[in-house]
Automatic annotation (TrEMBL):
Residue ranges of domain VOC in the record: 6-131, 150-273
Top-level taxonomy: Bacteria, Bacillati, Bacillota, Bacilli, Bacillales
UniProt name for this protein: Glyoxalase
Species the sequence originates in: Exiguobacterium chiriqhucha RW-2
PANTHER family per record: RING-CLEAVING DIOXYGENASE MHQA-RELATED (PTHR36110:SF4), RING-CLEAVING DIOXYGENASE MHQE-RELATED (PTHR36110)
Entries under PROSITE patterns matching the protein: VOC (PS51819)
Length: 310
């Protein structure tokens, strides 16, 4: 089997799609590449922010649940999502965060990489990490030479770290690379594929914490990259061989998916790289109209009538 390629997307929750859209496109300068709905509950928006063309590994997505309460932070959670920016970009972002009143920490070194921890308006836990290059949004409010261009590491806070480690290494093929301390907590780092920050999972062991009660600003699941349909079929067999309960193969139209919970309760999705977001609209106009997969298209009028226009 081929190795997991790293992060595919991270899906979080918001209580206000319009406020969310403004923050991620106007403050963070990411591109809205797909305005669609939750395929399992089309009464809610599903918004995808990414690089210029929605490349796998660049998507931060949000489900809108208007009546969602606050998050009560804890373990069994994806507790932070990193976004990559070019080397030397964080001085710009410090000024920008001051300008827009974004809650943030001072810049610090994490594994030798300058990193800026911050939260959005709903308490979504994020950070910017310097390193690498990509194809950020064109003609956005943030200059391309300092703009967000993709996902970085995913931090998980867990209560049963040994069991989560076994799933990462024995089932998914990740490898342990290093350990560091932040805020008095040990963080264990695992990577896959060719390595690098876009492939890393950071595990924080917190058996003392209750499980997180999700709400506004929490993460629903992380998706990791599988190359194609043939590899996905092999992953179905592999999960079965380990006795891991999973969703079976689901066609999300823009990619194929399998969902399962690792042993600390975090929801993990395996997702194929293709066919991609340009399947039903040109790259030049991604995110401008409500996109619906074919099985929901006959219900367009009904669905649009229930959504607040963005």
């Amino acid at each position: 089997m081929k190795a997991i390629l790293g992060q595919h997307h991270v899906s979080a929750m918001t209580g206000d799609a319009l406020k969310n859209l403004r923050f991620y496109t106007e403050v963070l300068g990411m591109r809205l590449v797909k305005k669609t709905v939750n395929q399992d509950d089309p009464s809610m928006y599903h918004l995808f922010y990414a690089d210029e063309s929605g490349t796998p590994g660049t998507d931060l997505t949000f489900f809108e649940l208007p009546f969602l309460g606050q998050t009560y932070k804890g373990s069994s959670s994806i507790s932070r999502t990193a976004l990559r920016v070019p080397d030397g970009a964080l001085s710009y972002w410090l000024e920008r965060f001051f300008e827009f009143g974004v809650l943030h920490d001072p810049v610090e070194e994490v594994l030798g990489r300058p990193t800026l921890y911050f939260e959005d308006e709903e308490g979504q836990r994020l950070c910017l990490v310097e390193g690498g290059s990509g194809t950020p949004r064109k003609n956005g409010p943030v200059p391309a030479d300092v703009a967000v261009f993709g996902l970085g590491f995913s931090e998980w806070t867990v209560r049963r770290i040994e069991k989560t480690e076994r799933v990462l290494t024995d089932v998914l093929g990740y490898r342990f690379t290093s350990e560091f301390e932040r805020n008095g907590q040990s963080v264990r780092v695992f990577e896959t594929g060719d390595g690098g920050v876009a492939t890393e999972i950071h595990l924080v062991d917190r058996p003392d914490l209750p499980s997180e009660r999700p709400g506004r600003g929490s993460v629903h699941h992380i998706a990791i990259r599988v190359e194609d349909d043939d590899e996905m079929a092999r992953w179905v067999e592999r999960l079965d061989s380990f006795g891991i309960s999973h969703s079976g193969l689901i066609d999300r139209y823009y990619f194929k998916s399998i969902y399962f919970r690792e042993l600390s309760g975090i929801l993990v999705e395996l997702a194929t790289d293709g066919p991609g977001f340009a399947t039903d609209e040109p790259v030049e106009t991604l995110g401008e109209r409500l996109a619906l997969p074919p099985f929901l298209e006959p219900r367009r009028a009904e669905i649009e009538a229930k959504l607040k226009p963005l």
